[in-house]
């Protein structure tokens, strides 16, 4: 990876630049507030010349060493302060994976402000709501997404053309910040005295109702970042490829895991499979994160081939199917299956492999690997509890560890959000019984591993039985011609509800044997299901589609699928 | 490693044992006090059947899975509570590396008490002082060290015969604890509400004056443990060999690093080089810690040979010489050079290798590797400051980063002790200027790496020049016949002081070419020094000895060497 690039003059640190913020007064000698900003400062101190950030596949590629990147982060902090940002103010960022959003994860904290991340896939009306609700005092926006801004927006806006060159308004903003600093350096900024202060504000992509603003803390971000570096074994020699959008739950704290580890980060603006493979094969990539739908795209891309060096794939968002795990391993991609939500900084459980699994068949092993597992390195207890009897029920009672009784996953501790921003009612509801109630249904096995059964609203009540849409999908995905599958409840006169399966075929199967014969495929898949699932869980309908509707964060929109099938039902 | 062993009935957990302590009331959902006790509980939850602790080379070898070990730890907590131990009380432990002291690192915290570790190499009078000063309410003592106990001791004593079998008084103590618990399990114990509470109390082996009691916290122990696991890359598949005594600065928090990592720990009662090599070669050892003197013993043992799997050696206590680094690497032992004190939980700096070092000669690279380096993963700033002008001088001024100006190393943050126990005066003195003043003299290089020059009292003022005894030792150690060397100041009529070198020869050299000719060797070493050191730093005297006087923690007693040489001088 080589290209000619010189950072702007304002990005170059002065000789003998200090890397310490001015300390809050009166701290005990043995106590320093936890703050993930420490990681980038320490990286710049120990490995100033190491490649920190590479943004290659754009008209104006850039690369920054830790030392230069750290100076740019400092400039951003001063620029925000110059713009009137005070401690606790919200700074909105609307950007794909790029230096802007990478800078902001650190620079906004350095100004003691709160980073409000906006999903670039939202509609303008949703963006307007978030900017309004968060009370953001300034917006940093990538040039491709300025159309998302409300026309009547009154807060200042800084546009990045993603060039890293002089003449770019974002670069001007940083240069002005440097000038404003009067070379006071890091020591002219103050270290946050309270580790429980807000760090990020990430809005959940609620499929119903208004999005809710998840507030994380400095302490939680520090501990989650360290845990992700440890669990994924990210180190000095690692290169992390940004496929997961950084705006998605703050990139699961990997912006901090990578600086903690002194790893190199490589940013991609879009999920582009040939480009991903180019970097897998040529850029010494060692780690990336992605939901199963992205992983499916990766292993099925024509460029996919066995790697000569292993890559670790951190998978979350849904359980990987046996078929996906097999495909990843064939390529030399080692799956790390984690589970979490925006409210838990990303991962708060992980599937921990057991030595005894080594002797199992790939199919059996994959089933065990698909479980969500146990509490993550710095997470606290993970429990599965009976659903509340009524609105006033605040007692959490654990379901038995029988692998059968379905309950709701709850957790608490340092990597649980502080609150929903300006929404005490939603916070109180989510924190029922002194734990965060995830809304995910699961069983807990005898070994203490949890296995998500479904989102509570995705359960299919078929002939009085509870059928897990996820369990049905797991089985259907093992059919050799299925690329991706989603199952929802469809109204049924006799059984109440019955499963309806939406299937994307693998390209060879779609253009080959099932071409013009998708009805026959549907019957075959139903027969396949009957050999593997109880009758009430077998799909009554199979529909082959070209694509599936997804949320802005890449999750399949089951609410939309339900609308489609039940509209059809209503017509019958 | 296989032998017949069945844990006592009281060590076997009941079916469906819970692994959660009862939570303090009123904690926010997003906050859990940091406590390294969490690590063993999580290990027992996720890997109950994995080998946790192995104690093989004793008349009654034992091995415990995480599940069984965790039950024993719970039993210990209940046994202490039954014995009247209240939160904050001190529990003294006098034991070599063995299950007793490993249990105590967790069980004492589970009783919310403070673990007071007593060095087994102390004299009875020193032990009496520590038991008295710490106000320990109970003493757990290994059978080999009961003679260290004062005859008039009034506190209860529990003796371990290190058998792990019924009939052993320590096992009876644990069984009684189990009975006392009435099977309330972990939930019958309370989780500590304050993470800044004391965890360990470790007395420094002061060469002058009374030992001082270093108080660590739960928060610091958690963060230092995580940092050590991350920095040394200890994981599920690792086996840690206990060569460093666990009583030495709480084993540098490796008791917690290992449980955090789910690693297997192997305890050795004594530093026995043939035994160490037996385990290096046969027990899948991956990590160990040790001071350079121990490392010298390891690489020079007749059993030493190149390893087929690499082992990481964490080295602290003094800088490894180029010669030692070379010998370790030849065997396949990868040195990780860290620096710290009891007051900093062990490591708070580390020598971080730079890519550019790969092209240097082994000699040049070793010199860079001998520097103490930069701040550790969860440590805060490390500074080198001018010594105080007088007793009232509390302003810390950094020395320039020139690799020349000698100052004192100071640090602060989460892995600095809370205080010296019951010694506000010594605490205030050590915390001059709001940082912990280490008493170690160092320079700081242009790249921010610190390099220890000497303990302030070990500097040799030779003809008005400051000669670092460490720097002289580094050079003399590179002589092929030198096994170990220590240099101290000796009074000199003309120059004030001059270096006096004590040397242990390698066995082949001692029995071979220098047999009966140590005077000739002395002259050769002086000539060797002259080619490498400035005149004022060359040893005026070379004395070949069989062994060097060491402190109870294995550090060379320079005060004793100074006494020897200056007594001789006085006689002249």
UniProtKB/TrEMBL annotation, chains A, B:
Which GO biological process annotations does it have? fatty acid metabolic process
Keywords for this protein:
Fatty acid metabolism, Ligase, Lipid metabolism
Give residue ranges for domain AMP-binding enzyme C-terminal.
472-555
Q: Does Ligase count among this protein's keywords?
A: yes
Highest taxon in the source lineage: Eukaryota
GO terms, molecular function = ligase activity
Domain AMP-dependent synthetase/ligase spans what residues? 42-421
Has keyword Ligase? yes
Mind telling me which Pfam families this protein's record contains? Answer: AMP-binding, AMP-binding_C
Q: What InterPro entries does the database record attribute to this sequence?
A: AMP-bd_C, AMP-bd_C_sf, AMP-binding_CS, AMP-dep_synth/lig_dom, ANL_N_sf
Q: Which PANTHER family match?
A: ACYL-ACTIVATING ENZYME, BUTANOATE--COA LIGASE AAE1-RELATED
Recorded family membership: Belongs to the ATP-dependent AMP-binding enzyme family.
Q: Can you name this protein? A: Acetyl-CoA synthetase-like protein
The organism named in the record is Mycena rosella
């Amino acid at each position: 990876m080589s290209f000619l690039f010189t950072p702007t003059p304002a990005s170059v640190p002065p000789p003998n630049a200090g890397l310490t913020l001015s300390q809050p007064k009166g701290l005990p000698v043995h106590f320093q507030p936890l703050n993930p900003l420490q990681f980038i400062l320490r990286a710049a101190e120990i490995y100033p010349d190491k490649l920190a950030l590479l943004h290659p596949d754009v008209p104006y590629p850039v690369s920054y060493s830790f030392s230069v990147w750290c100076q740019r982060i400092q400039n951003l902090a001063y620029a925000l302060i110059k713009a009137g940002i005070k401690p606790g103010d919200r700074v909105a960022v609307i950007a794909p994976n790029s230096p802007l959003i990478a800078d902001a994860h650190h620079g906004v904290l350095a100004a003691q402000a709160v980073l409000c991340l906006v999903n670039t896939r939202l509609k303008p009306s949703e963006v307007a709501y978030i900017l309004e609700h968060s009370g953001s005092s300034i917006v940093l926006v990538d040039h491709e997404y300025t159309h998302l801004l409300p026309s009547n927006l009154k807060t200042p806006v800084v546009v990045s053309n993603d060039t890293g060159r002089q003449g770019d308004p974002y670069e001007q903003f940083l240069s002005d910040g440097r000038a404003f600093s009067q070379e006071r350096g890091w020591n002219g900024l103050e270290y946050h005295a309270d580790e429980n202060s807000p760090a990020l504000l990430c809005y959940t992509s609620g499929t119903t109702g208004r999005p809710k603003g998840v507030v994380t803390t400095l302490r939680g971000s520090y501990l989650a970042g360290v845990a992700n570096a440890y669990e994924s074994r990210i180190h000095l020699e690692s290169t992390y490829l940004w496929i997961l959008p950084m705006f998605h739950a703050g990139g699961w704290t990997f912006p901090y895991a990578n600086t903690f580890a002194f790893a190199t980060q490589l940013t991609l603006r879009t999920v582009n499979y040939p480009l991903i493979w180019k970097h897998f094969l040529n850029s010494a990539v060692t780690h990336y994160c992605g939901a199963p739908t992205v992983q499916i795209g990766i292993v099925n891309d024509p460029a996919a081939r066995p790697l000569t060096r292993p890559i670790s794939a951190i998978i979350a968002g849904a359980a990987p199917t046996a078929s996906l795990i097999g495909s990843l391993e064939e390529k030399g991609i080692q799956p790390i299956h984690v589970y979490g939500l925006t409210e838990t900084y990303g991962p708060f459980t992980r599937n921990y492999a057991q030595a005894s699994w080594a002797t199992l068949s790939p199919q059996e092993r994959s089933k065990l690997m698909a479980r969500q597992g146990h509490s993550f390195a710095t997470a606290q207890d993970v429990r599965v509890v009976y659903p509340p009897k009524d609105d006033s029920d605040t007692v959490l009672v654990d379901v038995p560890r029988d692998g059968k009784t379905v309950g709701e996953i709850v957790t608490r501790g340092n990597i649980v959000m502080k609150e929903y921003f300006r929404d005490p009612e939603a916070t109180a509801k989510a924190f029922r019984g002194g734990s965060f109630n995830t809304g995910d249904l699961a069983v807990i096995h005898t070994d203490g591993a949890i296995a998500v059964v479904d989102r509570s609203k995705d359960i299919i009540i078929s002939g009085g039985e509870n059928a897990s849409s996820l369990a049905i999908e797991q089985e259907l995905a093992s059919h050799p011609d299925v690329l991706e599958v989603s199952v929802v409840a469809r109204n049924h006169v006799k059984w109440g509800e019955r499963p309806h399966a939406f299937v994307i075929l693998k390209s060879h199967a779609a253009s080959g044997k099932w071409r013009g014969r998708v009805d026959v495929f549907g019957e075959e898949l139903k027969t396949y299901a009957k050999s593997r699932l109880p009758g009430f869980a077998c799909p009554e309908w199979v529909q082959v589609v070209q694509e599936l509707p997804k949320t802005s964060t890449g999750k399949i929109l089951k609410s939309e699928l339900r609308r489609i099938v039940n509209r059809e039902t209503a017509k019958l």
